[in-house]
Model the fold of this input.
Amino acid sequence: MASSSARITREPATPEWDAVELSRTLGERITATNGPGRERDFTDAILQQLRDDKLIGVVVPASHGGPGLGTADIARITYNISRLSGCAGLIYAMHMSQAFSVIRHAPDTPFFDAFIRRMLSDQMLIGSGTSEVGVGGDIFGSICTVEDLGEGALRIVKETPIISYFHHAGAVLITAMRDGEPRKKQVLVVGEKPNMEWVNGKEMQLMGMRGIVNQGFTLTTRFGEDAIFPEDFPAIQRVTMTPVINIMWAAVWSGIAWQAIDRTKAFLAKSDPKDTEVAPVMRSGAAVPSAYRRSTSPKRRCSNVESSVTLPTSRPARSIEINVPTPRGAVRKPDCSTE
Done:
């Protein structure tokens, strides 16, 4: 299997299945409702529907039975998901940064061939295990190492401060240091859940992300030599992982922004026209009347005060009094005129 961008070239959509259009109508197939205390259930329902709609493995290339969508279409899917749920959109974005790394950097081996096929058949979410306790947030620095257990068996024991959506993931991409010539190098390893043991750490309740389980873990992962990517992790991070996640994050923020607009429009659509004169204008899409625009009426300026004071008014100028203290605390009566 060649490591090239040809893997992620989009195949023509069929009339029966268009991933982008399917994501646009995702909310029509979700029965769960969102709200305070229900964020996690709502996110879980979306993830399950994404699996049912086969939208988790859309990056898998045609050579392995998948649609092989590229970053543009997957960003559109991420946007549509985020317009429904920012938490689900973030999970999808993070998963895609890992999935693209597998597709673009996996060597042509039986292990990775089978793994990519499982990404599609199992609609497998892939988590990120690149952070580590004790390195000060530097993902390019690892304390844990690849341990040789003999007879081709390898192991990593890693304490990570946070992995998102771990319990939903079927695999985690894990970084570790490995002895090499002329010096140690940081490698990326596929850690599969059936070959992994873990101890739960502290769960984080992050504002705006309560639909995502963000939790620390101590992971013990067993694997073979063929689960290690041939390229060093820093190269994979710079070439694929970072660019992809930034594109997907942009799609997430756009979706969240439009979600706010959708909520505003829904609120105005339900409002009584008697409540406000602006609501029907907003519903109709017409221009806002001048009465509700920013005032362009004359302003009164006071010229003999230490700091600038501007008083907007739509009424004729009249005598006013403003007390502005001088450095010695005296009170002066400024001269005001209308411009």
